[in-house]
Fold:
Amino acid sequence: MATATVERSPLDDVALTATISTEGLTKHYGKNLALEALDLQVPAGSVFGYLGPNGAGKTTTIRLLMGLLRPTAGSARVLGLDSVSQRQAVQRRVGYLPGDFVGYKNLTGAEYLRFLLDLRRHDDQNVMLALADRLDLPLDRHIGDLSHGNRQKVGLIQAFMHEPELLILDEPTSGLDPLVQQEFLALVREAKDAARTVFLSSHILAEVEAVADTVAILRRGRLVLTERLETLKQRATHRIEIEFSQPVTTETVIAAPGIRDVLMDGRTALITVEGSAAGLFRLLGPMGIERVRTHEADLEDIFLSHYQES
Amino acid sequence: MRTTIYFKDLRDQRRGFIGWSIGVILTVGIMGAFWPFMKDMPDIAAFVDAYPEAMRKLFQIEAMTSGAGFFNVELFSLMLPIIFLVFGISRGARLVAGEEEVGTLEVLASVSVPRYRILLDKALALVTTVSGLGLVTFLATWMTSALFGMGVPTGEALMASAVMAFLGIEFGLIALAVGAFSGHRGLALGTASALATASYLLYVAGVFIEELETWRIVSPFQQALAGGPLGGGWRAVFVWMPFVGVLAAFASGWRFDRRDLSS
Structure:
């Protein structure tokens, strides 16, 4: 008797342990389609990058997850709870940073954050104080007097300070300087190490690439890709610069597997290769390689192609 | 002790409250300062007669010969109601819809506080603040009366100030309710102001147009001002003012709990 083996992708198992799971999640504003039949699974304990150009529906998805919007159709479960009927229970266990965070201008950072901790009935202020110290936020100043970057820090702290199981962050690094951005990425990694899940939306690939395990790309309200970042990187193109000890022809290089493009400059070849470069080195090794310089996998091309595809 | 939305909103309003209180104290005090001159006017009867009959009827100008009557005409019939309406409506519109438009409601509505609780705390903060201004009005009336020998009975001053607060509470809660229902501060301000104006017009028109006389009682101005409010004593009809406000807030809570918040 013949048996068929169905190959399972790691994403197939995600539904069983998903922290966020949506089914046909749809949101229309009148005739405007903001989100169309979104089926999304966010693995527990992962850092999930939610990418898309401005207006793709990222914020709409997030606000649906937080229960701030009600779906036109479909449903979302967050930590196993329904985002509409169990909104409060969801919110209790989630830290949320809105895409356009606004705090009370007449309160100091400390007053505002303590107020939110009180509303959450969370008495421990230590994490809040430690985060403010780490992000170098002056807690005694009124929010109205803070720079845009410092206000964003207040927003980040209020999302992290009660140590929630799930962090939902909409464009979190907006307005942050590079040093604080690094600190933020460290916070995300620490959250992941503590087995928490981070759902991170962005239109900037680099910040997601630095921390995410899985990415999803949204375009015009529709999900166009969900993939583990590793898999995506394998599919991405690398640029490798090889300097040979002897002249090599373009034809020789192009014969290697996965070669997309070759540019010869004297004894130096600038090669664009897709996926693994092992075959390339096996073939060219005997030709006398003197120096190799590699460039980061260029995910940008993949993302741009998904952003623009019709 | 944990801070609540109620206490935070009260705290937010303290500066505005102090400003409005000073305004009320000055208004009442300055008006009271005119009383000694009015009282001693030799031909006050002729002065009163000079008003058209309709005005005399509407503002009960004949009663101007007493301190309480003078305050009724000059303060409690129009000026103080306007102050309480502006105070209540502007605050009511700001508490939910204002926060939603500015963007601060986004976090407030996502920290696991039930939306009905947000609305309840804000409604209570509004009622407390408007009542506070009512108390200031009472104290200002009572002290001014004592200072200028106006002879306004303490109980009447208290009742009339409470009625002013009821007016502010009713229309303030209506503004809060429209804001919670719609998320639009302008709509909340506009609707509550239009309703207040319509109520006042009904109250005034009812004096002159016989057909409207029976409908006058639905006007909060009729409920508040008929028979006084200074000197009119307690009337059960006063209860309608806070009741209608609470009803509006309660009805809007159903929608506020279910609607999309604007970002």
